[in-house]
Protein backbone atom coordinates (compact mmCIF):
# COMPACT_ATOMS: atom_id res chain seq x y z
CA UNK A 1 0.00 0.00 0.00
CA UNK A 2 1.35 3.44 -0.94
CA UNK A 3 2.08 6.07 1.75
CA UNK A 4 -0.86 8.13 0.43
CA UNK A 5 -3.23 5.21 0.92
CA UNK A 6 -2.04 4.67 4.49
CA UNK A 7 -2.98 8.18 5.59
CA UNK A 8 -5.63 8.28 8.29
CA UNK A 9 -7.12 11.48 6.89
CA UNK A 10 -7.37 12.97 3.45
CA UNK A 11 -6.09 16.52 3.08
CA UNK A 12 -7.57 19.25 0.89
CA UNK A 13 -6.67 22.75 -0.13
CA UNK A 14 -9.75 24.70 0.95
CA UNK A 15 -8.70 28.31 0.54
CA UNK A 16 -6.33 30.27 -1.72
CA UNK A 17 -5.76 33.92 -2.43
CA UNK A 18 -3.32 36.55 -3.65
CA UNK A 19 -2.63 39.83 -1.93
CA UNK A 20 -2.23 42.93 -4.06
CA UNK A 21 0.58 42.13 -6.49
CA UNK A 22 2.79 43.78 -9.05
CA UNK A 23 3.59 47.36 -8.12
CA UNK A 24 2.67 47.88 -4.47
CA UNK A 25 4.53 50.92 -3.18
CA UNK A 26 2.63 51.67 0.04
CA UNK A 27 2.26 48.32 1.84
CA UNK A 28 4.68 46.53 4.14
CA UNK A 29 5.46 42.83 3.77
CA UNK A 30 3.49 42.21 6.97
CA UNK A 31 0.48 43.96 5.48
CA UNK A 32 0.66 41.77 2.37
CA UNK A 33 0.83 38.67 4.57
CA UNK A 34 -2.28 39.82 6.43
CA UNK A 35 -4.16 40.73 3.27
CA UNK A 36 -3.45 37.36 1.66
CA UNK A 37 -4.32 35.45 4.84
CA UNK A 38 -7.67 37.25 5.27
CA UNK A 39 -8.59 36.65 1.66
CA UNK A 40 -7.66 32.95 1.80
CA UNK A 41 -9.76 32.46 4.93
CA UNK A 42 -12.67 34.24 3.27
CA UNK A 43 -12.20 32.04 0.21
CA UNK A 44 -12.37 28.93 2.39
CA UNK A 45 -15.43 29.98 4.37
CA UNK A 46 -13.73 28.86 7.60
CA UNK A 47 -13.29 31.06 10.65
CA UNK A 48 -9.83 32.09 11.78
CA UNK A 49 -10.35 30.01 14.93
CA UNK A 50 -10.20 26.86 12.79
CA UNK A 51 -6.52 27.47 12.00
CA UNK A 52 -4.25 25.56 14.37
CA UNK A 53 -1.23 25.28 12.10
CA UNK A 54 0.87 28.00 10.50
CA UNK A 55 3.84 28.05 8.12
CA UNK A 56 5.82 30.97 6.84
CA UNK A 57 9.37 31.91 5.86
CA UNK A 58 11.35 34.86 4.61
CA UNK A 59 10.16 37.56 7.00
CA UNK A 60 11.13 38.45 10.55
CA UNK A 61 13.81 37.23 12.92
CA UNK A 62 11.72 34.38 14.28
CA UNK A 63 9.60 33.44 11.29
CA UNK A 64 6.89 32.23 11.48
CA UNK A 65 6.44 33.40 15.08
CA UNK A 66 6.47 37.10 14.22
CA UNK A 67 4.07 36.72 11.31
CA UNK A 68 1.67 34.54 13.30
CA UNK A 69 1.64 37.14 16.04
CA UNK A 70 0.95 39.90 13.53
CA UNK A 71 -1.98 37.88 12.21
CA UNK A 72 -3.33 37.23 15.69
CA UNK A 73 -2.76 33.47 15.48
CA UNK A 74 -1.49 31.11 18.19
CA UNK A 75 -0.77 27.92 16.27
CA UNK A 76 0.07 24.62 17.94
CA UNK A 77 1.83 23.34 14.80
CA UNK A 78 4.39 25.44 12.92
CA UNK A 79 6.88 25.19 10.11
CA UNK A 80 9.58 27.65 9.07
CA UNK A 81 11.42 25.53 6.50
CA UNK A 82 13.34 27.86 4.20
CA UNK A 83 14.71 26.32 1.01
CA UNK A 84 14.22 29.17 -1.43
CA UNK A 85 11.55 28.97 -4.10
CA UNK A 86 10.65 25.38 -3.25
CA UNK A 87 9.86 26.36 0.36
CA UNK A 88 6.11 26.32 -0.14
CA UNK A 89 5.80 22.97 -1.85
CA UNK A 90 8.00 21.50 0.90
CA UNK A 91 5.85 23.21 3.54
CA UNK A 92 2.67 21.96 1.85
CA UNK A 93 4.07 18.43 2.01
CA UNK A 94 4.90 18.87 5.70
CA UNK A 95 1.47 20.34 6.43
CA UNK A 96 -0.36 17.57 4.59
CA UNK A 97 1.58 14.95 6.53
CA UNK A 98 0.85 16.71 9.83
CA UNK A 99 -2.86 16.96 9.08
CA UNK A 100 -3.01 13.36 7.93
CA UNK A 101 -1.33 12.26 11.16
CA UNK A 102 -3.73 14.27 13.31
CA UNK A 103 -1.21 16.87 14.48
CA UNK A 104 -3.26 19.74 13.01
CA UNK A 105 -6.68 20.30 11.43
CA UNK A 106 -6.08 23.40 9.30
CA UNK A 107 -2.69 24.82 8.30
CA UNK A 108 -2.23 28.26 6.77
CA UNK A 109 0.74 28.92 4.49
CA UNK A 110 1.36 32.60 3.81
CA UNK A 111 3.98 34.72 2.06
CA UNK A 112 4.46 38.39 1.25
CA UNK A 113 7.29 40.52 -0.10
CA UNK A 114 7.92 44.08 -1.23
CA UNK A 115 11.13 43.20 -3.09
CA UNK A 116 10.47 45.63 -5.91
CA UNK A 117 9.25 48.54 -3.78
CA UNK A 118 12.13 48.17 -1.32
CA UNK A 119 14.74 48.54 -4.03
CA UNK A 120 12.97 51.52 -5.59
CA UNK A 121 12.77 53.23 -2.20
CA UNK A 122 16.39 52.44 -1.31
CA UNK A 123 15.42 50.26 1.65
CA UNK A 124 17.56 47.44 0.26
CA UNK A 125 19.98 46.79 -2.56
CA UNK A 126 20.14 44.01 -5.09
CA UNK A 127 22.22 41.12 -3.81
CA UNK A 128 24.86 39.36 -5.87
CA UNK A 129 25.00 36.28 -3.65
CA UNK A 130 23.30 34.68 -0.68
CA UNK A 131 26.38 35.11 1.52
CA UNK A 132 30.10 34.44 1.63
CA UNK A 133 30.46 32.06 4.56
CA UNK A 134 30.54 28.30 4.73
CA UNK A 135 30.67 26.42 1.42
CA UNK A 136 29.80 29.58 -0.53
CA UNK A 137 33.16 31.13 0.34
CA UNK A 138 34.72 29.05 -2.43
CA UNK A 139 32.58 30.63 -5.14
CA UNK A 140 31.63 34.17 -4.11
CA UNK A 141 35.12 35.72 -4.40
CA UNK A 142 35.10 34.87 -8.10
CA UNK A 143 31.89 36.77 -8.81
CA UNK A 144 29.79 33.67 -9.29
CA UNK A 145 26.34 35.21 -8.97
CA UNK A 146 22.98 33.49 -8.67
CA UNK A 147 22.01 34.17 -12.27
CA UNK A 148 25.45 33.02 -13.45
CA UNK A 149 24.86 29.61 -11.87
CA UNK A 150 21.62 29.15 -13.80
CA UNK A 151 23.30 30.41 -16.94
CA UNK A 152 26.12 27.87 -16.59
CA UNK A 153 23.58 25.09 -16.21
CA UNK A 154 21.71 26.25 -19.30
CA UNK A 155 24.92 26.34 -21.31
CA UNK A 156 25.71 22.78 -20.24
CA UNK A 157 22.30 21.59 -21.42
CA UNK A 158 22.86 23.34 -24.74
CA UNK A 159 26.25 21.63 -25.06
CA UNK A 160 24.99 18.17 -24.10
CA UNK A 161 21.72 18.09 -26.02
CA UNK A 162 21.80 20.79 -28.66
CA UNK A 163 19.17 22.91 -26.94
CA UNK A 164 18.99 26.28 -28.68
CA UNK A 165 18.59 29.85 -27.54
CA UNK A 166 15.47 30.06 -29.67
CA UNK A 167 13.90 27.15 -27.78
CA UNK A 168 14.64 28.80 -24.44
CA UNK A 169 13.32 32.13 -25.72
CA UNK A 170 10.09 30.49 -26.87
CA UNK A 171 9.38 29.52 -23.25
CA UNK A 172 9.41 33.21 -22.32
CA UNK A 173 7.14 33.98 -25.29
CA UNK A 174 4.59 31.36 -24.19
CA UNK A 175 4.66 32.61 -20.60
CA UNK A 176 3.80 36.07 -21.93
CA UNK A 177 0.94 34.64 -24.02
CA UNK A 178 -0.49 33.12 -20.85
CA UNK A 179 0.01 36.39 -18.96
CA UNK A 180 -2.01 38.13 -21.68
CA UNK A 181 -5.06 36.25 -20.41
CA UNK A 182 -4.38 37.24 -16.78
CA UNK A 183 -5.59 40.72 -15.79
CA UNK A 184 -3.41 40.57 -12.67
CA UNK A 185 -0.18 39.86 -14.55
CA UNK A 186 2.47 42.57 -14.34
CA UNK A 187 3.47 42.31 -18.01
CA UNK A 188 0.87 41.34 -20.65
CA UNK A 189 2.05 42.80 -23.96
CA UNK A 190 3.07 40.07 -26.46
CA UNK A 191 6.75 39.42 -27.10
CA UNK A 192 8.55 37.47 -29.84
CA UNK A 193 11.54 35.17 -29.88
CA UNK A 194 13.50 38.00 -31.52
CA UNK A 195 12.51 40.32 -28.67
CA UNK A 196 13.97 37.87 -26.18
CA UNK A 197 17.16 37.23 -28.14
CA UNK A 198 17.87 40.91 -28.83
CA UNK A 199 17.56 42.09 -25.23
CA UNK A 200 20.45 43.12 -23.00
CA UNK A 201 22.58 40.21 -21.79
CA UNK A 202 22.29 39.53 -18.06
CA UNK A 203 24.44 36.38 -17.87
CA UNK A 204 25.30 34.50 -21.03
CA UNK A 205 23.16 32.98 -22.52
CA UNK A 206 20.34 34.79 -20.67
CA UNK A 207 19.06 38.13 -21.86
CA UNK A 208 16.66 40.19 -19.79
CA UNK A 209 13.50 38.39 -20.94
CA UNK A 210 14.98 34.99 -20.08
CA UNK A 211 14.87 36.15 -16.45
CA UNK A 212 11.99 36.58 -14.03
CA UNK A 213 10.56 39.98 -13.30
CA UNK A 214 10.86 41.67 -9.90
CA UNK A 215 7.54 42.49 -8.27
CA UNK A 216 5.77 42.95 -4.97
CA UNK A 217 3.06 40.64 -3.73
CA UNK A 218 1.94 37.82 -1.51
CA UNK A 219 -0.42 34.89 -1.34
CA UNK A 220 -1.84 32.31 1.05
CA UNK A 221 -2.99 28.70 0.93
CA UNK A 222 -5.12 26.96 3.55
CA UNK A 223 -4.99 23.16 3.87
CA UNK A 224 -7.46 21.28 6.03
CA UNK A 225 -8.47 17.79 7.10
CA UNK A 226 -11.26 16.08 5.21
CA UNK A 227 -13.75 16.51 8.06
CA UNK A 228 -13.49 20.28 7.62
CA UNK A 229 -14.50 20.19 3.96
CA UNK A 230 -18.24 20.12 4.64
CA UNK A 231 -17.92 23.56 6.23
CA UNK A 232 -15.95 25.15 3.42
CA UNK A 233 -17.26 27.45 0.73
CA UNK A 234 -15.53 26.01 -2.34
CA UNK A 235 -14.98 22.68 -4.04
CA UNK A 236 -12.02 21.01 -2.28
CA UNK A 237 -8.82 20.29 -4.14
CA UNK A 238 -7.15 17.21 -2.71
CA UNK A 239 -3.46 16.73 -2.01
CA UNK A 240 -2.79 13.42 -3.74
CA UNK A 241 0.95 13.13 -3.26
CA UNK A 242 4.12 15.08 -2.63
CA UNK A 243 7.88 14.71 -2.73
CA UNK A 244 10.91 16.74 -1.66
CA UNK A 245 14.61 16.57 -2.48
CA UNK A 246 17.87 18.50 -2.15
CA UNK A 247 20.89 18.49 -4.45
CA UNK A 248 23.87 20.75 -3.74
CA UNK A 249 25.08 24.14 -2.53
CA UNK A 250 28.38 24.56 -4.35
CA UNK A 251 28.36 24.03 -8.08
CA UNK A 252 31.36 21.70 -7.81
CA UNK A 253 29.18 19.26 -5.86
CA UNK A 254 26.44 19.18 -8.52
CA UNK A 255 26.94 15.92 -10.35
CA UNK A 256 25.02 16.88 -13.49
CA UNK A 257 24.06 20.44 -14.44
CA UNK A 258 21.28 19.08 -16.65
CA UNK A 259 19.40 17.28 -13.85
CA UNK A 260 17.51 19.15 -11.13
CA UNK A 261 16.29 17.76 -7.79
CA UNK A 262 12.78 17.78 -9.29
CA UNK A 263 13.78 14.45 -10.83
CA UNK A 264 13.63 12.96 -7.32
CA UNK A 265 10.80 15.04 -5.84
CA UNK A 266 8.61 14.51 -8.90
CA UNK A 267 9.17 10.78 -9.00
CA UNK A 268 8.13 10.50 -5.34
CA UNK A 269 5.11 12.80 -5.74
CA UNK A 270 3.71 10.95 -8.75
CA UNK A 271 4.27 7.55 -7.14
CA UNK A 272 2.52 8.60 -3.93
CA UNK A 273 -0.33 10.14 -5.87
CA UNK A 274 -0.69 7.04 -8.01
CA UNK A 275 -0.71 9.02 -11.26
CA UNK A 276 1.57 9.34 -14.29
CA UNK A 277 2.95 12.58 -15.72
CA UNK A 278 0.95 11.91 -18.89
CA UNK A 279 -2.27 12.23 -16.85
CA UNK A 280 -1.53 15.77 -15.66
CA UNK A 281 -3.79 18.47 -17.13
CA UNK A 282 -1.97 21.62 -15.95
CA UNK A 283 1.53 22.24 -14.64
CA UNK A 284 2.78 25.11 -12.52
CA UNK A 285 6.58 25.15 -12.51
CA UNK A 286 9.07 27.53 -10.93
CA UNK A 287 10.44 29.77 -13.66
CA UNK A 288 12.93 32.29 -12.37
CA UNK A 289 14.69 31.61 -15.69
CA UNK A 290 13.56 29.96 -18.90
CA UNK A 291 15.94 27.05 -18.39
CA UNK A 292 14.18 26.15 -15.14
CA UNK A 293 10.95 25.47 -17.01
CA UNK A 294 12.72 23.36 -19.62
CA UNK A 295 14.70 21.17 -17.25
CA UNK A 296 11.78 20.73 -14.84
CA UNK A 297 9.58 19.48 -17.68
CA UNK A 298 12.22 16.86 -18.38
CA UNK A 299 12.83 15.91 -14.77
CA UNK A 300 9.15 15.51 -13.95
CA UNK A 301 8.88 13.04 -16.82
CA UNK A 302 6.86 15.04 -19.34
CA UNK A 303 9.56 14.33 -21.90
CA UNK A 304 12.91 12.55 -22.05
CA UNK A 305 16.14 14.16 -20.88
CA UNK A 306 17.44 16.45 -23.59
CA UNK A 307 14.08 16.81 -25.31
CA UNK A 308 12.75 19.74 -23.27
CA UNK A 309 13.45 22.33 -25.94
CA UNK A 310 11.52 20.49 -28.61
CA UNK A 311 8.77 19.50 -26.19
CA UNK A 312 8.09 23.08 -25.11
CA UNK A 313 7.84 24.35 -28.68
CA UNK A 314 4.79 24.98 -30.88
CA UNK A 315 2.66 26.51 -28.13
CA UNK A 316 2.49 23.34 -26.05
CA UNK A 317 2.78 25.35 -22.79
CA UNK A 318 0.06 27.90 -23.50
CA UNK A 319 -3.46 27.83 -22.11
CA UNK A 320 -4.71 25.97 -25.18
CA UNK A 321 -1.63 23.77 -25.59
CA UNK A 322 -1.10 20.10 -24.81
CA UNK A 323 0.40 20.83 -21.38
CA UNK A 324 -0.75 24.27 -20.16
CA UNK A 325 2.11 25.45 -17.97
CA UNK A 326 2.39 28.52 -15.75
CA UNK A 327 -1.04 29.57 -16.89
CA UNK A 328 -0.95 32.85 -14.94
CA UNK A 329 2.18 33.96 -16.81
CA UNK A 330 4.60 32.63 -14.23
CA UNK A 331 7.55 34.43 -12.74
CA UNK A 332 8.64 35.45 -16.23
CA UNK A 333 5.60 37.69 -16.79
CA UNK A 334 2.97 37.62 -14.00
CA UNK A 335 4.78 38.25 -10.72
CA UNK A 336 7.91 37.24 -8.87
CA UNK A 337 8.27 38.85 -5.44
CA UNK A 338 10.92 36.39 -4.23
CA UNK A 339 10.15 32.85 -3.10
CA UNK A 340 7.38 32.30 -5.64
CA UNK A 341 6.52 28.67 -4.94
CA UNK A 342 3.28 29.44 -3.11
CA UNK A 343 1.89 31.20 -6.18
CA UNK A 344 2.20 27.91 -8.07
CA UNK A 345 -0.17 26.23 -5.63
CA UNK A 346 -2.66 29.10 -5.83
CA UNK A 347 -2.80 28.95 -9.63
CA UNK A 348 -3.06 25.15 -9.66
CA UNK A 349 -6.02 25.25 -7.29
CA UNK A 350 -7.79 27.98 -9.23
CA UNK A 351 -7.42 26.00 -12.45
CA UNK A 352 -8.83 22.84 -10.87
CA UNK A 353 -11.74 24.79 -9.38
CA UNK A 354 -12.52 26.49 -12.67
CA UNK A 355 -11.86 29.96 -11.23
CA UNK A 356 -9.13 31.16 -13.60
CA UNK A 357 -11.36 33.36 -15.73
CA UNK A 358 -10.07 34.13 -19.22
CA UNK A 359 -7.00 31.93 -18.70
CA UNK A 360 -9.05 28.90 -17.60
CA UNK A 361 -7.86 25.63 -19.09
CA UNK A 362 -10.55 23.40 -20.55
CA UNK A 363 -10.31 19.78 -21.60
CA UNK A 364 -12.24 18.18 -24.43
CA UNK A 365 -15.92 19.00 -24.22
CA UNK A 366 -15.25 22.03 -22.02
CA UNK A 367 -14.49 19.92 -18.95
CA UNK A 368 -12.36 21.29 -16.14
CA UNK A 369 -8.89 19.89 -15.56
CA UNK A 370 -8.76 17.05 -13.05
CA UNK A 371 -5.07 16.83 -12.13
CA UNK A 372 -2.39 19.46 -11.59
CA UNK A 373 1.22 19.47 -10.49
CA UNK A 374 3.06 22.30 -8.74
CA UNK A 375 6.83 21.99 -8.59
CA UNK A 376 9.02 24.57 -6.88
CA UNK A 377 12.78 24.97 -7.18
CA UNK A 378 15.01 26.59 -4.56
CA UNK A 379 18.42 28.21 -4.70
CA UNK A 380 20.27 27.36 -7.92
CA UNK A 381 18.59 23.99 -8.35
CA UNK A 382 19.58 23.23 -4.75
CA UNK A 383 16.17 21.94 -3.63
CA UNK A 384 12.81 20.90 -5.04
CA UNK A 385 9.30 20.22 -3.82
CA UNK A 386 6.55 18.73 -5.96
CA UNK A 387 2.84 18.44 -5.09
CA UNK A 388 0.18 16.64 -7.12
CA UNK A 389 -3.35 17.96 -6.71
CA UNK A 390 -6.71 16.61 -7.86
CA UNK A 391 -10.32 17.69 -7.97
CA UNK A 392 -11.43 14.33 -6.56
List the helices and strands and how they pair.
Elements: H1 3-6, E1 11-18, H2 29-44, E2 53-55, H3 65-71, E3 77-79, H4 87-100, E4 106-113, H5 115-120, H6 146-161, H7 165-179, H8 193-197, E5 201-203, E6 206-207, E7 217-225, E8 237-246, H9 262-273, E9 282-285, H10 290-299, H11 308-311, H12 330-333, H13 341-353, E10 371-378, E11 383-390
Parallel strand pairs: 2-3, 2-4, 9-10
Antiparallel strand pairs: 1-7, 1-8, 4-7, 5-6, 8-11, 10-11
Would you give an account of this structure?
By secondary structure, this protein is α/β, with parallel strands linked by helices. The protein is 32% helix and 17% strand. The chain has 13 helices and 11 strands. It has helices at 3-6, 29-44, 65-71, 87-100, 115-120, 146-161, 165-179, 193-197, 262-273, 290-299, 308-311, 330-333, 341-353, and strands at residues 11-18, 53-55, 77-79, 106-113, 201-203, 206-207, 217-225, 237-246, 282-285, 371-378, 383-390. The chain has a 9-stranded mixed sheet with strand order 3-2-4-7-1-8-11-10-9, with helices on both faces. It has a two-stranded antiparallel sheet with strand order 5-6. The protein is globular, with a radius of gyration of 19 Å. It starts with a helix and ends with a strand.
